[in-house]
Amino acid sequence: MASSNELPVQTLSVTVHPTSPITTTISTVPLPECLAPGDVLIKVEAAASNPKDWLHLVATGTSLNSGDDLAGIVVAVGEGVTRFKPDDRVAAFHPMGKPYGAYAEYAIALEHTALHIPDSMSFEEASTIPLVSLTAGLTLFRRQGYLAPWQPGAQEKNQRKSLLVYAATTSLGTYAIKLAKLAGIGPIVAIGGGSSDYVKGFLETPQDAFLDYRTGLETLRENVKRLTEERHLHLRNGLDAVNEHESWVQVSQMLHGGGRLSVFSGARKYDEQAIPKDVDIVYTFVGTAHEAKYRPSMPKQPSVEDVQGDPAFAGEFFVWLEDMLRQGKYSGHPFEVISGGLNGVSEGLNRLRNGQAGGRKFVYQIGSKGRE
Ligand SMILES: NC(=O)c1ccc[n+]([C@@H]2O[C@H](COP(=O)([O-])OP(=O)(O)OC[C@H]3O[C@@H](n4cnc5c(N)ncnc54)[C@H](OP(=O)(O)O)[C@@H]3O)[C@@H](O)[C@H]2O)c1
């Protein structure tokens, strides 16, 4: 094990409780004396929230440190870790449900789901990147069949393979569009609501289109149909990044025959009669980057073989993403800092639960800035 100094023996850690409203408690938790192979111990400078940080706890009635997106400074690395060393600036996707999560002074992540961040990038911005970027990457390049941008011929082969992104103003929809652009995928038909200014900036070719979902889903479906006919688009690939009010049913009807629609809420079944028979619905579970499998209760799973390679893909994806960050070709999502450091987590999660994200992520300053 390589470490900068004496290893910290304990950390302040937030436990999130599935109450209404969401509440948290902060306690001191001992850190392991020795890191496991592949582990990276990180002094957390910023953490970001995701909807599942409260959703899963409410669904299962459990309490835990549910934060999984973080950025900070490497303190020590376990055996076999070669990409990171103490004092490196990093962001990481902590394994969901495991100890030493992001809402803490120190967290433990795994080498293959961590990435270096440039000196010019703030920890706050960096903390918005790992979990949702990887969800979007797994979706496009493992489930939807597009070539990953680092694969030979990706730009040519992904061209003229259009993509429909419903709920493009979610961080998931926006990251999917940023990745699609870097992989040469297009044209992109993006559908969003009131927070669309940021995502519109990535729809830079005249072939791309933006539509507003607030016209109502049925009108929207007609508008997409008209657009695809006028532009001779064959929309076979789609993402429904929100899965609300049976949105996936209408979105599945916007795709052409033989299409594939990615969905993200594990709480739905996606078996409505109105879904066209020739549209394949596939659920993305970002946890496969660590677990290499779906959980038995999850809907619309891909084949076991398709999932086994996800941890290796995640490793390649983060190495590539770190290069994109270095070159200034990729960036974080708009964010709002919730004051109070670890004490602010309950406020952020309640605002997420109340649908107040409005095109940005909620971030907490946990390191030195949080104490200012
Ligand atoms: N399965 C997985 O592994 C996985 C991983 C990551 C995320 N997810 C899921 O993916 C979903 C998106 O996550 P996120 O973190 O990207 O969300 P988010 O950024 O917090 O989403 C907030 C945005 O959702 C948009 N929105 C709300 N209701 C909408 C509707 N009915 N139709 C279209 N857009 C709507 C709003 O946009 P406007 O302001 O423009 O209206 C709002 O800005 C969540 O359900 C999350 O749990 C799943």
From TrEMBL:
Residue ranges of every copy of the Enoyl reductase (ER) domain listed in the record: 24-363
Keyword Oxidoreductase assigned: yes
InterPro entries found in the cross-reference section: ADH-like_N, ER, GroES-like_sf, NAD(P)-bd_dom_sf, Trans-enoyl_RdTase-like
Key words, A-Z: Oxidoreductase
An example molecular function term from Gene Ontology annotations: oxidoreductase activity, acting on NAD(P)H
Family named by the database record: Belongs to the zinc-containing alcohol dehydrogenase family.
Protein name according to UniProt: Enoyl reductase (ER) domain-containing protein
Organism: Cladophialophora yegresii CBS 114405
